[in-house]
Structures are given as C-alpha cells and as structure tokens.
Amino acid sequence: MTFRTYAQVAGADASGLADQVAAQRAQVRERLHAVRRVVAVMSGKGGVGKSVVTAALAARAAARWPDRVGVLDADLRSPTVARLLGAAGPLRITEAGVHPAIGPGGVRVMSTEFLLDRGRPLAWREPDAERFVWRGALEVGVLREFLGDVAWGELELLLVDLPPGADGVADLAALVPDLLGALAVTIPSDEARHSVARALRAAVEAGIRPLGVIENMAGYRCPGCGEAHTLFAGDAGAALAAEFGIPLLARLPFGEGPDVEPIVEALA
Amino acid sequence: MKFLCLECDEQMRFAERQQPGDGTFAAAFRCPKCGRSVALLANPMETQLVDSLGVKIGGRTLDRQPMELARSAMLGREDAFEDGGKGEAGSGERPSPSPSWSPAATERLERVPNFVRGMVKKIYGDYAKQHDVAEITPEVMDRARADLGLEGI
Questions:
Q1: B13 touching chain A per CB within 8 A
Q2: More confident residue, B22 or A212
Q3: What is the pTM of this model?
Q4: DSSP assignment string, A36-76
C-alpha cells in the first residue's frame, strides 16, 4: 500500500494546532508587553531561601516603583511567596483576565497558593494512569496561563520565583523570549555551589543571561553578644560569581531583614 | 494532524467532536469526496495529553477563557475565583447586554462546581450573545453543548 504522508498532503492541519500554539505565545507576548523587566529568581537547590529573597526584593522594588511590581510564583507545587507578601485570594476575573492578588505592600502576586485548598498538594482532576506523560506539559501550560492570562498591568518589574532545579528556567525561557535575565540564589556551602552552578549552566544554555549571585544565609549575628558567626562553611557566592563572570550582588545574613537595595539598584 | 481517505487520496475534514464525560475524547473526520467518515477515539491518557497542551482537536469553537487550563484541570478550592465584572475601571470597554438566566438554567448552573462555574457561565453567555438569545434556558444550554462539543461539561 502506498499513500501520501503528512508533508505530502498540502491541506492545512484540520485542528490548526500550530496556530493554536502560536496564539498562546502571542497572548503571553501581548500581556508582557507592558512589563518592562521580567527577571527569574532561581536556584539549583531547595531550601536556600529563594522565595524569601524574592519577596524581599519585590517589597523593596515596590518602594521604588509603587504599584508597579509583580511576582509570579512559578513554584507550582510548593508555593510560598504569596504568604510572605501577605497576598490572598479570591482572584477576580474580568474581561481583562485574572487579576493578581495584591499584598499590603502593593506587590501584585499570582500563585497556586490562591488556587489550592489549604494544606493540599498540587493535584489534577485527570486519572492517575500515565500521569508522568502529561504532567510536565500541564504544569508548563499553567505557567503559561499565569504569564498570559493574568492582568498584570503596567509593571516596572515582574519577578518569577522558579522552583528549585534546572528545568524551570528553560521552560520560562521558552515562554518569555524577552526575559531580562536570572538572579541565582545560593547559600555558602560547597554542595549548594555545585547545584546552583548546574542550574546556571542550564540558564546559559537556554539563552538566559545570569544577572548575578545572591548568597543567602551568609552567617548570623548572635542576638546576645552581637558577634557575627559562620552558619555554613564555604564561599559559594563568590565562587559562582567568578565561575560565571557575574557580580556577587549581596551576601545576606540569616535572621535579619535582608538589605536587598543593591540588588534592586542593579536591576533598575 | 491530518486524516487521508486512502480510497480517494483526499484529505478528510473535521466534522465534529464529542467528550462523553468519562475522560475520553472522540472526533469525526469526513472525506469530502466520497463522504466516508472515520472517528478518532482517544483514551483518557491521550485525551489528557492533548488537553495539557491547551489545544483543541478540530480547532477552537470558543474563545479561550482566562486560565481555562488551570481552572479545568487543577483540583483546587471552590472559592478561588470571583466574578469581577467588566474589568479595569476606566478601561473604555463598552458593556454589552448580558442574557438573563431562567430559574431552571440557574439551578442547573449551580450544580457545576464553583471552581469552574464562572468559566462555564461565560461559555453559555457568549453562546447566547452570538445567537441573539435573550434568556438562557436548559434548552439553550443543551443546544450550546451540542453545537460547541461540550458534552463533557
């Protein structure tokens, strides 16, 4: 039996799938057209305080650009940043799209925190069978909707708080071609250094510009004597900065309100 | 995706789709030359894989709804969303008359989970506007479901 194959049949795809995907991408581009800077906050390792740094950055940036800062919590499975910024649902839907929640500091936030039942993990309605096949596509689809269907409005800065690991940054790069770059958060330890280095390489390979390194939990100050102590051995922040030729933007001590103004200044 | 009628060497055309509500999906394609039809029958995993991409086999018959993927696929809280009206104040959007809902249609709508009710309401509302229907009744809802291939919702 001989018959024509896909490319030999000249007619258009009956479902227009390519057009549908193109429309999705156009929607994201159109929505982010009014956003001056989209910056990813990433780390290869969990538990380094990435969301805390993101929230501090957003709050500080909102002091510089009132009502013109947003945070997209791309950590769909373990959302944190909305709570840190005091933003809560329900989310308002209008013809303009889904309106982000706004915390007391004026930061606009979108997160699965607003969608999930309290204390419940991220779960899907569809059957468990072969879930691994489609779950990744679904999560990227939800991230795309967070970018394209949310009425972010005019923003000076949209921070995207990525989940730990190296995958999220490549997904974001595919969705947001005009991403300004990525901030890498680490703690001083050597283990964190190697993990964050892998994520930074993934970012570079995805065409994302690393903007700098933030070393979190860089020692702590004893509340009794006031003396500074080491919390983790290592110098991951400086080492990563040297390895990738990017600035070490800040070393933030544990347990104190982080001074992130130099980072906001670097983004301005 | 293309379907080719081997007898006629003609590309088949999309005819209709059905979502019976059991997680599966069916789409029919017809040969424009001989009229022969074939049905694409997808199991729940295959259906979900396509849905996860946010695309519709056979093309879209409705405009995308805001966050329709998250709202339809995610197991979430019922009070996650609220209807916020027409949009930003001063946005210049011209309000269009909304069709009314009959008591029976309202009762039926209330059986839809809160989480997706807003989206479902908008789908029926858009259908009514497009067809110059002033009042949405259960019969209008049935007609919309058939016309739009919404048997799954």
A1: yes
A2: A212
A3: 0.80
A4: S-EEEEE-SSTTS-HHHHHHHHHHHHHHHSTT-EEEEE--T
